[in-house]
Specification:
The chain is of the alpha/beta class. It contains twelve helices and 13 strands. Bound molecules: 1,4-dihydronicotinamide adenine dinucleotide. 1,4-dihydronicotinamide adenine dinucleotide binds next to helix 4 and helix 6.
């Protein structure tokens, strides 16, 4: 049986992979994949990694030195991989789509929590405080949602917004005109989206073009009441600029499932420690900010799909007699 070294393991990963695995011996490691831990993969032909693992040149070299032949990412994004360095050395696979509903529904959950201040009322009523002073929200019906990135998740989020009776404007360098025509939504330029939207939700990948797409300049264009939702990647937002705008009351609220410096913090219980990240601490302390720990993907359906597709990617790799880069779900430089 081929062995898989599985990094950054959480109980829910083990449960779903053990449920669907029949062909592999999986060695689960709680450690993240880094240059320090890569040697744990010795004796395994495959490595399985996740969003906050580091897959840079030293890690790729170490994996190859230790006999690893393939990297199976159990996620859609791959911005944490040095693809240019891996090209031609280490075949990489990913799970391009597992449940766009999981992520889009979480984005709407953040929006509803913030808008109707449910995070506040939950705490109040647990303390038998039934006052509703200060909990006034606004109707989503009739408001304008600006959606950046109209791929799989963006489209589901748009449908949810339309269900709430919202108007949708979208920005995507590769617009899906048929989807827009079917739904009666409009593609606009970035600046127009920033200035017209009551809600802005990010559903684009992290690339050199999208890094800090929300920055001091774009924040200046937004309505004072805008709610910004980010369930995509932390570095889409310049968090220092976001914090400044929140402090100066230049924007309304922010719901963040991702954070640019999340790697060593998210997915870990840090409740007994002092967090050495002032921006994160200040964001967490704000009444109009909700932070969740990169959990938008975390539904039963998504976990099952992730495990099944990851294992199938490895089955395809080990069975193939062609170039692995040509197999479905292969990731390569220039994607
Ligand atoms: P997708 O590939 O189906 O869609 C991405 C869309 O973004 C495409 O339409 C693409 O044209 C567009 N895009 C590319 N460059 C852009 C730019 N410069 N500006 C605006 N749009 C641009 O991807 P999918 O499945 O919808 O996922 C979107 C993102 O969600 C992923 O890249 C990932 O970062 C994030 N994600 C987060 C999860 C979480 O648990 N929080 C889970 C899964 C994905």
């Amino acid at each position: 049986m081929e062995k898989i070294a599985f990094f950054d393991t959480k109980p829910y990963d083990k449960e779903s992979f053990d449920r669907f695995n029949t062909n592999y011996k999986i060695q689960y490691f709680e450690d993240k994949l880094t240059a320090r831990t890569a040697a744990l993969a010795k004796g395994c032909r495959a490595v399985c990694a996740f969003v906050n693992d580091t897959i840079d040149a030293p890690v790729i070299d170490s994996l190859l030195d230790n006999g690893v032949e393939v990297l199976a990412m159990r996620c859609a994004g791959y911005n944490n991989i040095d693809l240019r360095y891996a090209e031609g050395k280490l075949p990489i696979f990913r799970v391009p789509a597992y449940s766009p509903y999981a992520v889009a529904e979480h984005a709407m959950a953040l929006l509803l929590l913030l808008n109707r201040k449910v995070h506040k009322s939950y705490i109040r009523t647990r303390d038998f405080n039934f006052s509703i002073n200060g909990l006034t929200g606004f109707d989503l019906h009739g408001k304008t949602a600006g959606v950046i990135g109209t791929g799989k998740i963006g489209q589901v989020f748009i449908d949810i917004c339309l269900g709430f009776g919202m108007t949708v404007v979208a920005y995507d360098p590769y617009p899906n005109e048929k989807f827009a025509a079917d739904r009666g939504i409009t593609y606009v330029g970035k600046e127009e989206l920033f200035s017209r939207s009551d809600i802005i939700s990010l559903h684009c990948p992290l690339t050199k073009d999208t890094r800090y797409i929300i920055n001091e300049e774009s924040l200046q264009l937004m309505k004072k009441t805008v709610t910004i939702i980010n369930t995509s990647r932390g570095q889409l937002i310049d968090s220092e600029a976001l914090l400044k705008a929140l402090r100066e009351k230049r924007i309304g609220a922010a719901g963040l499932d991702v954070y640019e410096e999340e790697t060593d913090i998210f997915y870990e219980d840090k409740s007994g420690e002092i967090i050495n990240d002032d921006i994160l601490s200040l964001l967490v302390s704000m009444p109009n900010v909700i932070i969740t720990s990169h959990q938008a993907f975390l539904t039963e359906e998504a976990l099952s799909a992730i495990a099944q597709v990851t294992l199938k990617n490895l089955d395809d790799f080990f069975a193939a007699d062609t170039d692995p880069a040509k197999l479905p779900n292969a990731v390569h430089y220039g994607m």
